[in-house]
């Protein structure tokens, strides 16, 4: 089950890269081409945020080492997700500034920003309670199931954010006549969305009881 | 936790109804107005499919009765979801026919149709194995955790289908200039999406270990 999680995670990464580099304008944060700046957003939000966060959730099962090491890897991968997620988010705000588009009006943006803020809180909470062990052993034992269940809910929300993001972009391209039904690019976007969805599902399966 | 699941389920139902009846064209399967036919789709896919299916998952915890009764309610609510889901699906195919739009090209449609087909299989499987007890007690015991985990994955997928559907419709309305950022209708769609998302999250919390 855990191998399927890794597999779908990597498939989604490869498909996303093919889409952004081959079918779209490429990925460049400092570009004058606003579309290249925009593409930093989907690339970092999946490859930099959802994928490392999912792998961090799997760390307790996939790393052949003692618990303490796994815990450090879990925390560190989530920190990577947090930092790269901030880059991905700032890219879309930069794109909106370049195009004078309004911020945070779509369902995608609402789900995404809510997920990211709650993820930040969950990370700080985890750092203080479990890493720095600010709470007693009994409190940590009581809090752990909640930490897990909230983490799984956040992955669920992050996947919803990714799917709505792909949907928003492909609807926008369709409305401009730049994406036709059943075209190769359209199918590629859909397969990318399914791979991200199945990554979420299999990570959830793998960490579940 | 289970009360929050019911609450978000009902909030989503009310918001969806306000959107379709007040802000959009209303709901009518037999109408000559294609948009009224289309509106049957989101209404039935949430109120007729996702909501009863979620409530069916909660039946083992929310119904104060013996196990056998709960099991029948669980099966019956899923049957309701299956039948009303078929009506919701046929509405969107009818709409596409009326407008000569192609079928099943968007990410929303791929996630939706995959979810619905797998849901149908899961229902038939559950009926044969658990209701008609075609399998031995030991097999049923082995299979039950898989039935649960697949059910939770399907709810996850169904919520993703709903979110991408709302995103597709709102992007389409925006591209026609019929929906402006931060407008009341736009916020209503987003709150509906969040309510459906939290219904999914809290059902998952409630049935989880």
What is this entry, summarized?
By secondary structure, chain A is mainly α.
Question: What distance lies between the first and last C-alpha atoms of chain A, to the nearest angstrom?
Answer: 13 Å
Tally of helical segments of chain A: 6
Q: What's the domain count of chain A?
A: 1
Q: Which regions of chain A have little confidence, pLDDT < 50, spanning 5+ residues?
A: none
Instruction: Indicate the overall shape of chain A.
Output: globular
SS-derived structural category of chain A: mainly alpha
Most extensive interface: A-B, 38 and 38 residues
The CATH C-level name of chain A is Mainly Alpha
Helix content of chain A: over 70%
State the CATH topology of chain A: Four Helix Bundle (Hemerythrin (Met), subunit A)
Secondary-structure arrangement, i.e. CATH architecture of chain A: Up-down Bundle
* Beta-strand residue percentage of chain A: under 5%
């Amino acid at each position: 089950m855990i191998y399927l999680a890794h597999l779908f995670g990597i498939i989604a990464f490869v498909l996303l890269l093919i889409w952004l580099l081959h079918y779209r304008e490429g990925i460049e944060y400092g570009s004058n081409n606003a579309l290249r700046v925009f593409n930093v957003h989907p690339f970092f939000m999946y490859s930099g945020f959802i994928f490392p966060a999912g792998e961090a959730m799997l760390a307790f099962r996939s790393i052949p080492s003692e618990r303490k090491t796994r815990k450090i890897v879990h925390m560190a991968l989530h920190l990577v997700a947090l930092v790269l997620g901030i880059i991905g988010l700032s890219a879309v705000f930069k794109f909106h500034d370049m195009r004078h588009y309004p911020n945070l009006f779509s369902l995608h943006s609402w789900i995404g920003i809510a997920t990211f803020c709650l993820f930040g809180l969950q990370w700080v909470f985890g750092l203080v309670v479990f890493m720095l062990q600010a709470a007693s052993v009994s409190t940590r034992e009581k809090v752990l199931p909640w930490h897990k269940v909230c983490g799984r809910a956040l992955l669920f929300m992050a996947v919803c954010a990714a799917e709505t993001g792909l949907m928003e972009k492909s609807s926008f391209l369709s409305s401009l006549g730049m994406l036709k039904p059943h075209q190769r690019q359209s199918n590629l976007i859909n397969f990318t969305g399914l791979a991200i969805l199945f990554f979420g599902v299999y990570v959830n399966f793998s960490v579940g009881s």
